[in-house]
Amino acid sequence: METAVVWFRDDLRVEDNLTLADAVSAAETVVPLYVFDPRRRRESQYGPDKMGSHRGQFRRESVDDLRESLQDRGGELVVREGLVEDVVPSVVEGVDADAVFAQTKPATEEVEREHAVRDALPGTVDFQRRFTHTLHHLNDLPTPYDRIDDTFTPWRKEVEQGASVRDPVPAPERVSTPQVDPGVIPSLDDLGFDTPPHDDRSVLPFEGGETAGQDRLQHYLWEADRLREYKSTRNGMLGPDYSSKFSPWLAAGCLSPRWIHREVKRYEDERVSNEDTYWLLFELRWRDFFQFQFLKHGGNFFTPTGIRNVEREWKHDRAAFRQWAAGETGVPFIDANMRELNETGYMSNRGRQNVASFLVDALGIDWRWGAAYFEERLIDYDVASNWGNWAYQAGVGNDSRDGFFNVLSQAERYDGDAEYVHTWLPELQALPTEYAHRPWRMDADEESSYDVVLGVDYSEPMIDVEARFVELQETRY
Ligand SMILES: Cc1cc2nc3c(=O)[nH]c(=O)nc-3n(C[C@H](O)[C@H](O)[C@H](O)COP(=O)(O)OP(=O)(O)OC[C@H]3O[C@@H](n4cnc5c(N)ncnc54)[C@H](O)[C@@H]3O)c2cc1C
């Protein structure tokens, strides 16, 4: 064929991008296209925006890096703003394309947009979709996605035994783009985002793009050599290297899980192969699990009762929700994590589990409000990973255990010396560990001797947390 348009979505890379590779081999000229669709950042039905400034900036940088990579190969990225179902057909018409190649993703809005684009294309244009964002290919699953187990462990075991991971597809050496106005990449301001805050306490600067993602992998595996201890450090909370931090690049598709897999295997051959190296692949299978679960259950993931139809009385207390979101609950471990999220767009996995459990279990607030807030704030937001993990924590998703996190014992276990809380809540700096996690235990004399007066220097706890966890323990087990 003569000309193909490659509509880039959450696959902002040239390595292991089958959509691009297939278009390049099928067509003489290729028009790579990225569309900034305003619907991706507008307000969600729950109040928060769908995309905040940290992710907005990361995505813009990723598009910029993709443009450079394509230019290095002799091509050009065409950038437009507008509704995808208007823009893609108009570019197709402008270059008289024979086909559109695009990544396909499992969640409701993504599929709707995909169908809208397909339906708006002239019947003569071939619409080709590729499934490119998981470790295991959809067609390689031992059990078809609509019949897979809803519990992770049996699914993982079956996949580990019965499916292999395909080799990454090499980046095309040359991309030949016809004459077309490339368009400018809009500024953050033009896209409607404020410049995100810069905070030196951020675990990483998180620069968007395939180049920065590959640099991160190079650092974490090969230079810092931290994969050999991943399993024992992954529950950390401070610093760049306690975990891989691959998530923002995976979510935007700057890194492909199969490419990471190949590097892990090479590391296992050249350095060490142990439980820790295996565990990174284990976590990538958690990621896959949620992607395939979304294919299986679709829109049911977004209902209050979730995929298992669990009825629970959720509270809709806006004031309490705002305290949680702002990191003003008066429970330091929760507040520190929420402030890290708000300042940097990132929060550790340990932190995410605890703040989610605090919202849904301790406060009993609608889990979808929490998921929508994360959707806005997270730099690594991914629809299936986010809504899947929230549903799981709320007891309406992929697990029938109704567990909760006792955030006080979690704080003492994972932040034993209160370094994390002291980092994100400098107003508690003077407090020794026991009070840094439970400031309400201070008497008035201690408050004045440490110069931390509750209700003045730091919030009073919004609930009696100690009593609440005793109550939860008694009712749940
Ligand atoms: C309430 C809640 C919401 C979450 N929302 C998201 C989200 O929107 N996007 C997202 O990528 N992750 C999400 N996670 C999963 C996990 O917290 C992050 O993937 C992880 O903290 C990212 O840091 P990392 O890359 O250093 O992780 P690592 O520990 O280095 O893990 C490597 C990779 O494995 C995958 N992974 C690890 N844990 C999980 C998990 N529980 N579920 C799915 N994939 C996982 C991620 O792609 C991650 O980059 C959420 C977890 C919870 C509890």
Q: Can you offer a commentary on this structure?
A:
The chain has 477 residues and is mainly alpha-helical. It is built from 20 helices and five strands. It has a five-stranded parallel β-sheet with strand order 3-2-1-4-5, with helices on both faces. Helix 2 links the parallel strand 2 and strand 3. Helix 14 packs antiparallel against helix 15. The radius of gyration is 23 Å and the shape is globular. The relative contact order is 0.12. The mean pLDDT is 96. Flavin-adenine dinucleotide (FAD) binds next to helix 8, helix 10, helix 13 and helix 15.
Cα separation of the termini: 64 Å
**DSSP helix fraction:** 40-55%
- Point out poorly predicted stretches: none
The biggest beta sheet, please? 5 strands, parallel
Backbone shape: globular
Structural class: mainly alpha
Number of strands: 5
GO molecular function: deoxyribodipyrimidine photo-lyase activity; DNA binding; FAD binding
Domain Photolyase/cryptochrome alpha/beta: 2-138
Pfam families: DNA_photolyase, FAD_binding_7
Family: Belongs to the DNA photolyase class-1 family.
Name a few traits of the molecule:
five-stranded parallel β-sheet, 5 strands, binds flavin-adenine dinucleotide
